[in-house]
Amino acid sequence: MAEEIKTVNIKNKNEVAKRSLMADTWRRLKKSKTAILGLMLIVMFLCMAIFAPIIGDYDEDALKMNIIDRLQGPSINHWFGTDEFGRDIFIRIVYGTRISLFVGLISVSIALSIGGFFGAIAGYYGGQIDHIIMRILDVILAIPVILLAITIVAALGPSMLNLMIAIGVANIPGFARVVRAAVLSVKDEEFIEAAKAIGAKDHIIILKHVLPNSMAPIIVYATLKVATAIMATASLSFIGLGVQPPTPEWGSMLSSGRAYIRDQMHIVLFPGLAIVLSVLSLNLIGDGLRDALDPKLK
After folding, report:
1. Cα separation of 157 and 10, whole Å?
2. What's the pLDDT tens digit per position in 141-198?
3. Position 228 pLDDT exceeds 70
4. H helices then E strands: how many in the chain?
5. At what angle do helices 160-170 and 215-238 cross, to 10 degrees?
6. What is the C-alpha to C-alpha distance for residues 249 and 228, in angstroms, rounded to an integer?
7. Under 8 Å CB-to-CB from 49, ≥6 apart: which residues?
8. Would you give the distance in Å from CA 32 to the centre of its chain?
9. Distance (Å, rounded) from C-alpha 89 to C-alpha 103?
10. How do residues 236-256 score in pLDDT, each as one tens digit?
11. φ and ψ of 88, to 5 deg
12. Domains in the chain and their CATH numbers?
């Protein structure tokens, strides 16, 4: 009987060992109701972005002016009403989802690529290289992210490409610090020393051993930064330094509709709700991932 129990325990341990990190993370993430709520919301926005051409015509509903239908309230024909030019607000929000998610993901990818590179180099090698890289990044970090983004866009000119570059560059120091801290936590582990002992080159060790074992905090930080990038996109577009009208973007929709906020509140209400819900969903997912990936809670 004791041998059978021991055999069962060994099998259970092997099953736990074989469970992938992704499956284990998903299992833990499902226990968080707020994370699942955030996941449902972000899936809704992704579906809106993917199926936007099916939901409504871009040229006819999102761009074409129709003065006869201007400033109409929510109705069966126009779910969220129309704006000051008679354009369907719902369709514009749907197409605005594409822009917000695209800018958020690309700008975070830029920041993660560049900041991750410098953070990994600084954390792995340490010493003088670490000191030089981090002091340069500290100078950039001393400038508020949104102010630095405004400066870059103002210098390059308002456009979607420059907006992504500005938000990406402004977030490089944050990603560098997170990646550096994650690399420092694993670079002295035994498997890293074993890789060095067998003659593995530094870039192989960093790419195949250090970074894959440092991904948990990086994933969480990147998720939260996508939400920040969406807010920055809306903020810069609101002040005229982001996506330019008539392209449908949530921040520019708020800016153009603020003159009618007292009498036609729906013009700014629904774009504002889109920003709030998208940022909230990503923050909820980020918090859930932080708990799911925290080794102290396993």
Report:
1. 63
2. 888 888 888 888 888 888 888 889 999 999 999 999 998 888 888 877 777 778 778 8
3. yes
4. 14, 0
5. 130
6. 16
7. 94, 97, 98, 101, 102
8. 20
9. 20
10. 888 888 888 788 888 888 888
11. -70, 120
12. 41-52+82-297 (1.10.3720.10)
